[in-house]
C-alpha cells in the first residue's frame, strides 16, 4: 500500500524510469555524472514522504519485496510468541535460497498458519476455561483492544463506553443508566437506558454475572445509531432487545455508580466506527496538477528528444562521414538509425532536469517548514489548556489557502457546551446578570458600576463558589423578601425534571436532560432557592436557608407539540400551586386577562433578549382549588389509561388546568459560544468561504446558534426549511426554494440545466449559480436521507450552494460525510471539516482538510484530523495567514523552479545545432551537479519559507486577499505555460548572447577565446546571474536570511569556481577536474561581463514589463486591495472597534420549541429513587 501511494505521484515513476535507463549496459556518450546525481535524491524524496505513512525501504528498487516482507512480518507477528520468529525466519530464508517468489508460497502459508492458529486458539480456550474454574472470579482491568464479543465489562461513572454493549445491570433502581451521547449526536443532555428485568437481578454479583449463559441473536453490524433489533435467549425464554437496551461506544456514563454490560459489537463493528468512514491518503490540488504537468513535460521531453534524434540522423548522413577520422564509430554503431536511437535516449537523460528530483525534495522541506510555523504560532496557543496548534500532516499546507467550503460541527466546536443564566425579567423589572470587567471596572447593562466588588452570597451556604455576580439589585430584592422575586425563583427550583446528586454534604451535582434546565435550576440555587433532592412524590427545596418539602402531585412534561412544562405541587401550608414554563408564543395564550399590561412589558424585555440571540422562556403560575384539582386528577388518570388517542386526550386534559395563568416573568439563557466565533465567521464570509453547520443536535438549537454566529442574519431575504418525509415532498421543497432564489434556474434555457441535459459523465463540475438575494437553508437529517438519494442530490447541492448559510440538523455521522463528499464530487472546491467529537470523524476524514478541536468530547476528532486547534477562532488565522502564505509561497516556488530549470536545460537544445546533435552538454559536469543541489537551492528555499506579500495584520484585516487561492490563480496550467515560454526565451538569450559575443573574438594578446570551456563558463555564469536576479524580482519580503541565501549563493558560486578550476585539483585529478585555469582566464575578459549584463537585461526586460503592465491592462481584485494596503500604510487609519452584534428581529428561541420529552414519567414512576425494593417485587419472574 505504501508503494502504491508513492507512485500516485507520477514523478516518482518518471524518476524510476530514468534511474533504470541510466543503468542499462550501453553508454551512448558521456552521461556518467547523471547516474550518481539522480539515484540518491530518489531515495531521499521517497523516504521523506514515507515517514508520514509507515516504515519503508530506502530506495525504489527494493520497495516491492521489502513491503511484501513487511506485510508478512506483521501477519506473523499476530500469532503466539512461541513460534512466530522461527516460522518467519524459515520462510524468508527458504524463499531467498531457492529463488521462489513470495507470492507463490503466500497462499499456502496463510492456509497453513490459519489452521495452526485455529487449533492453537481452541486449545488455549479449553485450558483457559479449566484454569478459570479453579480460580476465584475477579474483575480484570484491560485495554480496549482486548475487549471481545461476549465479554462482560464493568463501567463506572464518567467512563467512556468501550464497545456496543447490552446493559445487564446497574447501581441505579430498576437498573437505569444515565448516559451522555455528545460524541454521537452532539447533545449534552442525558438519556436513560434500562436493562431488562431478568438480567437486572444479577446486580453486581460476580458469581451470577460469570455464570450468565444467555445467547444474543441480533442484526449484523450497521451504521444506524437509533436502531437495534435482537433477541436474548436466556433460561429457556426469549426477550426482545431494542435500542433502549443498548449502550453505544462513545457514550459517557453519568450519574450512575456502575453498570455491567455484555459486549455485542467491538472495534470496526461498533455503530460509531461504522459511521467513521475510511482513512485515505490526502493529496493537494497542486499535487494532482503536478501529475498532469509531469505528464506534459514527459511528452514535451520525448518530442524534443525525437526531433534531436532526427537531427542527429540527418547530420550523420550528411556530415558525420567527414568526422570519422576523429570519432570512429563503425565498431560500435552499425548505422545512422541506430546511432540516432542511442542519441534519443542520451538526450532523454541529459534533458531530464526539466523535472529534477530536487523539486520534490524542496517541496517536502517547504511544507515541513510551514508546518513548524503553525506549531510555533503563539497567537494560536490556548493558554487555559496549555495547548498549541498542531499540524499533524505536512502535505496539506498550501491547500489551507484554497478552502471554499467549511463544514462545522456545532456542539463543542462553535459552542462551549456551557449554558449561562444571563438575564431575566421579574414582574416587569429587567435584571441583567451578565458582566464584563474592563480596566478593573465592571460593565453592567452598558453602564459603569460603582465598584468591582463581587456580591456576597454568604447568606446561602449551598451557593456555587464559582458563581461571580456584580449587580446587587436582584440580590437585594431576594434578601428583602420580594414576593414576586421569591415566587419566580421558587418556580425555577420546582418546575423541572432535574435529578440531584449529593455524594458529599453540600456539594450538589445536577443531571438534567436539557442543559437549559440545568442552567435555570443552578441560577435558582445561587439566589437562595436550592433544589436539594426529590422522590417520586416529593421535592425538597432549601429556601433562604430553610428546608421545605413540597408534595409532587403531577408533572405535565415537555413535548415538541406542547412546548411547555408544568408541575403541580402542594406546599407545606397545604396550598396547591401550578408552575408553568415554556415558549412565550404558547404561554401568552394561557395567561389571565389581568396580566395584559405586565405581558406587554415582559414582551418588550423578550424582544431585547432575542436581539442578543438568547434562549428565552416565559414563567407563570396558578393557584388551584383543592376540589378542582381532585376532579382534574381523575380526568388525567383516565386519559393516561385510555387505549385510543391517548396523547390527544392527555393534551386536552392538560389544557384544562394550564389556563388563567399569572405571569411571573421570563428568563434568558446564553448558549455560550466560544470566544471570537461570530467575528471569525464574519471574517471567513468576507473571504468568500461558505460555512455549513452539520450537527446531530435539534433544529431549534442549531438555528439559534446560527443566528448567534452570524451564519444566519435577520436581514436575509428568506430562510428555507426542508422537512419533507418522502422524495416527492423534499424535491418539491428544494425546487421551490431554488425558484425563489433564481427563477430562471427551472427553465430549460438555464445554462446549468442545459449542461446537465447533455448527461455528462460523473464526476463533473456544476457551475456556480448566483442568487437574487441573501438566503439560508435548514434541512433535517430525515429529509437529508431522501435528498442524498438518486437525482435529488443535485437539487440539494444547487439549492444549498446558492445559500449564504446552510444548517443540517439531526444528522448521523455518515450523513455528515455524505454531504462533504457531495460537495467534493460536483463542485471541485477545497473543503474543510472541523469538529471535536467522534461523530465528526467521518467528515474530517472525507474532507480535503480535517481540523480537530481538542474540546470536551474527547480526542477522537483530533486524532483523526490533519490539523488540531483548541478554539474555533484560530481557524481564521490558520486559513487567512498560514494557509494563504503557504499557497502563495508554493506557487512562487513552483513557477520559479520550473522557469530556472527550463532555462538551464533547454540551452542544451540550442547547443545541439552547433555540436552535430551529439548529446554533448554545454556546462561543466560539476556545475550540472551543483546547480539544483547548491547554487539555486537556498535562494528558492528562502523565498518559499520567508516571503510575505503582506503581513499577518493586513491578511486578517483584508480577508478578500484570500480569494485568488480559491480560484487557483497563482499556479495553474496557464501559469505553467508562461513559465515554459519564459524559460525557452531565457535559454535562447543565454545561449546566443555568449555565442555572438565570443564568436571570432580575441584577447588582448591576440589569442582566441571561443573555446568550449570558456564558452561553457560564460553561459553558466550568465545563467546563474539571471536566475538570481529573477528571484530578487519575485521576493516581496526581504529578511537577513533572504539576503544571505540569495547573494551568498551567488558569491559561493564564484568561490567554488576558483576551487574546482584550481591548478592543484586539476593536476591531482586530471580526469575529474578538466577546466584548468579557465576561471582565472575567463573572468578577466570584458566580453564575459558584457555577456552577463546583456543576458540579465534581455531576460529581465519582459518580466519587468509584464509586472508593470499587468495591473493596468489585466487588473484583478487583489491588486486593488494591495494598493489600498499601501495607501493605508502611508496614511494609517484607526483599527475598527469591535462592537457586539445584535439581532433586530424579535425571534424567539428556547428548548421548549424542540424538547421532545423530559424525565417526568420516569420521576413519577419512582424508578429514580435510591431505595432498593425487594427483588421479588422489583423483578418478578416470568412464568
TrEMBL record:
Enzyme class: translocase
Domain P-type ATPase C-terminal: 863-1115
Gene Ontology cellular component annotations, sorted alphabetically: plasma membrane; trans-Golgi network
Alphabetized UniProt keyword annotations: ATP-binding, Magnesium, Membrane, Metal-binding, Nucleotide-binding, Translocase, Transmembrane, Transmembrane helix
Highest rank taxon of the organism: Eukaryota
PROSITE patterns according to UniProt: ATPASE_E1_E2 (PS00154)
EC number: 7.6.2.1
Residues annotated to bind Mg(2+): 409, 411, 836, 840
Keyword Transmembrane listed: yes
UniProt cofactor(s): Mg(2+)
Positions annotated to bind ATP: 409-411, 517, 558, 581, 615, 695-697, 810, 816, 839-840
Catalytic activity: ATP + H2O + phospholipidSide 1 = ADP + phosphate + phospholipidSide 2
Protein location: Membrane
GO biological process: Golgi organization; phospholipid translocation
Homology family: Belongs to the cation transport ATPase (P-type) (TC 3.A.3) family. Type IV subfamily.
Protein name, entry field: Phospholipid-transporting ATPase
Species this protein is from: Muntiacus reevesi (Reeves' muntjac)
